[in-house]
Structures are given as C-alpha cells and as structure tokens.
Amino acid sequence: MTLPGQNPNQPRLALFNLGFRPFFLGAAVYAVVSIFIWLGLYGLGWSAPTSTINPIAWHAHEMIFGYSLAVIAGFLLTAVKNWTKIQTIYGFKLGLLFCCWLIPRIAILFDQGLLIAAVMDILFILLLASCVLVPIIKVKQWKQLGIMAKLLLMGLANILFYLGAFDIVESGIRWGNYTGLYLIIGLILTMGRRVIPFFIERGVGYPVTLKNYLWLDISSLVIFLLFFISTVFTHYKIIAAWLAALLFVIHLIRIAGWYTRGIWHKPLLWSLYLAYAFIIIGFLLFALSGYHYVSVFLAIHSMAFGGIGLVTLSMMSRVSLGHTGRNVQQPPKLIGLACILLTIGGVIRVFLPILDMSHYVNWIVISQLCWIIAFVFFLIIYTPILIKPRVDHQFG
C-alpha cells in the first residue's frame, strides 16, 4: 500500500500518521493535567468545578475513560494495523476521532457540559470500535474479538456512569466506574499473558523459555469474571474476598514462571513485570479488605496507580520507540527514571498508609507528585518522537 508521506521529504508534523501518536501524547498530557487538578481538589482544598459529579467520581472516571482509554485507543489502532496488515485511520479522520476523546475531557468539568461529554464520550468509543473492528473482520481474525468485546463493554460501562450522573440509574456512577476499571484490568491480564513473556524472552539478551500453563489461563479467566460480577453487582464481600485470594495465588504462580534476573537490566521489562505484580498485590489487598484488615481503596490503587499506571507508561514508551523506527532495547535513560518514580509513587500510595494512616493525605499528595513528574519526563522525551516523522522515513 502506498501512503502519503512514504518518502524522505514527508511533512515535519507526523502527529496524525498513526493512532498511537495523538492518543499517547494526549494521554500523557492528560495524566499530568487531571492529576494536577485532583491534587488541587484533594490536597489543596480547591472547589470542584462541577456540582453534578463529586470529585472522587470525576477522578475515577477520568483516569479510566479519559487517560486509560486514550492509551488503549492508541495501542489498538496501532496493533490492529500490525495484526491485519491493513492501514488504520490516519490524517483528518484520526484527528476527528481524537477530538471525540478530547472534547469530553473539557466538557465534563462544567455542569452545562455534562450532556456534551456524555454524547461525545459514547460516540468516541463507538467510532473507535468501528475503526478497529473493520480491519479485523476483513481478514477474519476472530481470535481478536475478545479484546474488541471488552472495548464495547467499556462503552456500556460509560453509559452506566452517565446514567448515574443524570440520576437515571441510582448506582450508575459506581457500576460504570468499577466496570470500566475491571475491564481494563482484565484487558491488561489478557494482553500481559501474550506480550510480557514474549518481550522478556526476546529482551533479556540470553536464551530463556518462560513457563505458561493452560490451566492458569482458563482458571484466571473464569475466576476473574466471577470476581468482577460479585464485586461490582453484589454485596457478597466475603465471596469477592475469597475470589480475590484465588486470583492472587493464580497470578503469583504465573508471574513466578515469567521471572528471570535479566529483566532488571531493562527498564521497559522490569516496569511491565512490576506493573503485573502491583495488580497481583491488589488482589491480595482486596482479599484482606473483605475482613477489614486494610481499606479496599488501597487494593484499587495498587491495581490502578501501580498496575495500570506503570503498564501504560511502559507500553507507551515501547510502542512509541518501535513504531517510529527506533530501538526498543535502548530506551532513553530518562524513561527509566520515570518508571522508577512511578513505582515509588505506587509504593507510597499503597503501602505507606498501611504503616502510618496519620499522614494519609501526605502520602497521597507525594504519590501524586511522583505521578506528575514521571509523566512530565515522558512528555519531555516523547513529544518530539510522537510529532516528528519516523527516523527510517516510513509512514506511520
């Protein structure tokens, strides 16, 4: 396929050449902006800009359907091109899709903008789903439909959130946010099973065969589904706690089979490994929260801050290098520091409150600052990479 700009004289601005570029850049900027706003609301006593949605619900929604979904969009639009060998949207169409994501991020901050945010948010997910489904259907890669189903379910979760925001469904905000969270966790567990051992085997620099077990794959899927349903839609906390304990054991066995000491020499390997570990620890903390040993919010932030945050930072860093013609085995040194900062932030957010609750607000503020600085480092490194053409002069 001949594409515009597939020559050394292509335009200097390549931001809309492929999906990962605008969505990774937008996600990173929003990671800084949204947490800065949350820092002001939670730590500095700022007044909430909207009375329709409470600040905690806004924070949860925007980290799930704002930040995380932007990363997913960039990843899928890029990965589907690789899977199917069919060019996904670029140029003006990609710019329009990006605007469908951006407009709700601004509109949701204002009471009069909530309806606009709802319409544009749902439109964004529907358009994104169509953009990735069409190439998959054309080449009949039915094995990818499971991932696509999770994307459509994200749309339903977002609808639930807005139905709650408009007082149509009483528990809509909670159902929507938690469904979105666990769908993303499920997507990470699914994709992590595919890519983390693959990256490790090819990235450590020596021959290694990592262990995977079919019984783990099947049991983790079934038990996670039961955990999700019991946690979000029932009040059986003890059942959910025991399911979380089973998930902790299952995924601990899995991640033990992926370990090799060479990962610690590669920031984009150990960051993925630790992100998976944060999610596993989240299951353990959730199990303990069922018996009131710890707060359930520590479990959630282990999965969200440590798990989603670290895995998305690492994947954005890796994909941005690989799809601009650069060497993924030699990332910029500053990105390693960004991963370290985010890991430290996750430890502070999750573990220090267990040791000392008297400084809980301080731990949150410090962890937020670690998050902000980590993503500022990402932006310093990757903004030029994301907006400039590939170094090999190919289109993409």
Automatic annotation (TrEMBL):
Organism the protein comes from: Spartinivicinus marinus
Transmembrane segments annotated in the record for this chain: 22-44, 64-83, 90-108, 114-137, 149-169, 175-192, 213-233, 239-256, 268-287, 293-313, 334-354, 360-382
Keywords: Membrane, Transmembrane, Transmembrane helix
The UniProt record lists the keyword Transmembrane: yes
Name of this chain's protein: NnrS family protein
Tagged with keyword Amino-acid biosynthesis: no
InterPro entries the record matches: NnrS
